[in-house]
Amino acid sequence: MFNLQLDWDRPAKVSSQLSEHILRVRILPSLSDVQQQAALPLKLAVALDTSESMQGEKWQWAKAATQGLASQLRESDRICVAGFADWVTPLVQNLPNNQLDQLQAVLHNLVAQGVTRTDLALSWIQSTLSSQTHRAKVGILITDGHPTNGQGDVLSDAVILIEQAKKMAEDGITLCTVGLGDAADFNSGLLVSLSDRGQGTFMYADNPTLLTPKLQERLQAVQAIAVTDAVLKLNLTPGVKLQRCCQLRPDYLPLTATNPQEIHLRNLRVDTATDVLLALEVCARENLIDSPSSNREFPLPEKGYNGVKHCRLTFDIKLLSLHPQNRQLNLQSLLNLLSHLQVWSQ
Description:
The protein is of the alpha+beta class.
């Protein structure tokens, strides 16, 4: 079950001036044992940098971390792994957790050499996961260097990579990126942008020994995904404008509203709340409409390995008149700014 809670940053006074207020939308899952089992099975695609710069200690730790990640898969999860340098070399496809010897064997024979074709790695992640249904789809890009072209020259314009990450998010794929080793050797800003556009997380492992625990921590998070395409729909009353928004919890993500005012949250997890902050501009008004605070529960979609039934989570705000002389509003009074708030899984 999900509980939906709304809170405002501060009281507001009706005045002749514009004002801005922050609405926190909290989507809080039930912690019952039954609902904890509602997480979706996972398909994971790991693109491992096998370029020449990965030779040495980093290479050994990267291979060990990949094996450690695979060892934490649940029975219903599947993993695909590929190395990328001058080209992409698929290593294992749809591997269950009871066949990990195959992964160990191919990683043992893999040699680090060549350039860093990040574009090909992103294309492989997308092609591997795009057609998958009824699963959480997560790609992980592990690299220690700058993306290059086929001749080994560092890309001067990474717009195409950002667009690839954006397209993944549109296809329901969560992209996480890992910067391994000295941050001076790779473009951390680009990796952050890729994970932001891919609705994922950037991880930095300056010490190769940190890679395994960071990947396993992220795996636990994505194994808790219960809804993969959540959307927040806002129907704002006249005089109210959405200025900006972001997801604050469980991971910070910049968000944008589409037309009509829909905010794609993508993943909802059963192990923690999802907090979204909305900055709303309120015009000067002499009469406001008040609404009492209320919380409601919404069931998760029924889960089964043959498919996930679509669910719709709806929160309706009842509108009540507020006397004009009541100029001081408490936090919940500003709920009049939203005449309808909906969260659903498409």
